[in-house]
Fold these 2 entries.
Entry 1:
Amino acid sequence: MLILTLALAEKLRLDQKYALLAERNAKRNAQEMAQQMTLELAQKAQDLEMTLKRQVRFVAMVSHEYRTPLAIIRTNLDLLSKKKHDPDGSLAFAVNKMKRAVSRLVEVLEINLDKARFATDDFMLRLEYIHLSALVGEVITQAKEFWPGRQLDYYPGDSPAIVISADRRLLKTALLNLLDNAVKYSPLESVVAVNLHCRANQASIGVTDHGCGIPPSEYGRVFEKHYRIPGNNSVVGTGMGLYLVARIVEEHHGRVAIQSVDEGTTVTIDLPIAGD
Ligand SMILES: Nc1ncnc2c1ncn2[C@@H]1O[C@H](COP(=O)(O)OP(=O)(O)O)[C@@H](O)[C@H]1O
Ligand SMILES: [Mg+2]
């Protein structure tokens, strides 16, 4: 009886020992597997980053390659527009149309380049002092060329001398994206307005449309990369516009806010005034 009990106890002890060993082995295997997977993931992330960087370089190269021929087309269009013999004005009309198309192409290239830069966080601000009301005026002029059928009103307010420290091209990109949305998400015959204000040490640019509006529950999400409000599929877009706007404004230590009601939307960019 005693021998049987001892044998049973020994068996129990061995069983426990093997169970413990098996548990340790399983734990070690799981740890090794997790380590291996972490390594593979890190490698994949690195590969992806490299691919993205290569893509950015490619986009930059392509944009650059396009710039020169586009500049040649522009110069020659300028020459053509100086031609005296144009009895019915059809030459000037066609040339102006082509000039607008070239401007749009240049803009698309530049915006794509900025998007690629932001996708990899591979950018540097080129800051300079800028007269804000003049810059917004330039953007409105450009926007009128892009959307000739639309009424775009500019209210520069009573503070024409607002100076900010900003990256001119990026700021233009941000404003054009807001105007693009205002035009895209509102009826053709409706007015889009841009207001410039100065409050304390902040400059504030508001873009207002009379379109479909943004529900308050979507205010946060529309700034996410690639996010588009479901149901807007008939309008072309990538969901990158407001993400880009938010990033650009953030880089300038500013703020962007949405205010939307049934009859339209105002997106406001607040930027610190230089010297503060
Ligand atoms: N002015 C606006 N009026 C109504 N909806 C808007 C407006 N601006 C942006 N949105 C909504 O926010 C989404 C994200 O905007 P954006 O990032 O510019 O992407 P995209 O215009 O390419 O769709 C849009 O898909 C649209 O649903
Ligand atoms: Mg957009």
Entry 2:
Amino acid sequence: MNLPIAIALPTPFLIGPVNSWLLPGEEPALVDAGPRTDAAWEALIAGLAAQDLTPRDLRHIFITHAHVDHYGNARRLAEAAPDATLYAPDIAHARPMLLDLEEEWERQYTFTRRALLASGLPPHLAELSRSRMADMRSYGDAVPVTRWLQSGEYLTLGDGTVWQVVALPGHSMTQVGLHQTEHNLFIAADHLLPHVSSNALLEPPTPGEQRRPRALPRYVEMLRWTAGLPIQQVFPGHGEPFTDQRPLIMRRLQGIEERAALIHTALLERPRSVLALVEHLFPKLRPEEIFLAISEIVGHLDVLEARQQVAFRGETVREYFVLLQEEEGKTIMATIDESFRQDLVQHPKQSYRVIVRTASEAALVAEHCAHQGMTIHHQYRLLPGLALTATGEALLALAAHPAVTHIEPDQMMSV
Ligand SMILES: [Zn+2]
């Protein structure tokens, strides 16, 4: 079979050029169409011409998700390609977004403004999201979709190769990819990017739902799922194709863990609003990046909240704090093997050398332990934790510390 051919299209966005993937063959297909700019259009025409094609030769046009850098020029392309079927996912809010419905943009704006205010952004800055969204909208156009797709459907494209549509919610709830299961090829769009981690953007509830989607936890699930696929080559929405997806996915998962740990540590010091966390983590932020930064922080808070490590309080501005044992009437205790726990209970005055695993950076727990008179031997960084010696009763008390997740004997010794 023929491999997909990249046609890189310029965008006015920070991410840089977007890939339009050409699947050559009897029925040429194009995956994604670029933003609505003349520069992107000219690059697309030139890219097709380099393969002796014009838009009129296209038989299939496929849109991967409802972001303007991927669908903006689809209408112009469809008008120049009268014989092409135009496919798009009928997932989450893709349909109203791709049809460019006024009420959907209004819904997106109202949600975004409310979310920014709840994050602690002052009203005059939250208002700016309207002009930012209007600016985004100007790079898109209503997409004349002729076939709406569900996840799991099969499409025959290009040289007769069969591709499966797979939903990849996270970066956008509307995100889909194409998986070629015979040759193990994967058109990932923005689900996997080689040079930058994909943002899991803050989105309003899917129409008909009450709760906004937890984008980053969903993205983590989908990353894990993708790691298990037999993939030979990945064709991303931005950047070069790459071969083994697993190391990249491991790096992305690790990056998410590290940032979640930083947020957890910051909240151990004191409760903070989302904006205060943004200022703490991204002190040199430019104003135009504020929405991305807030999305980023909210996503990681969602990850921590799903693990019951943080909760929020406050009605207008939400302040997040580390979930202590008193909260919600439940005790979250570190895990200790039952026989070891019995040992600690029966010998409260005996000294034990243990490994203590912590939810985030171990330094704060180390400080607490030192203050309690425990002897710290070592601080682990890769898997955060401590090696220390303490009495049975001190260890039982330490198990209730919100940042301690696990306690196990190191080399037990009586002193
Ligand atoms: Zn995107």
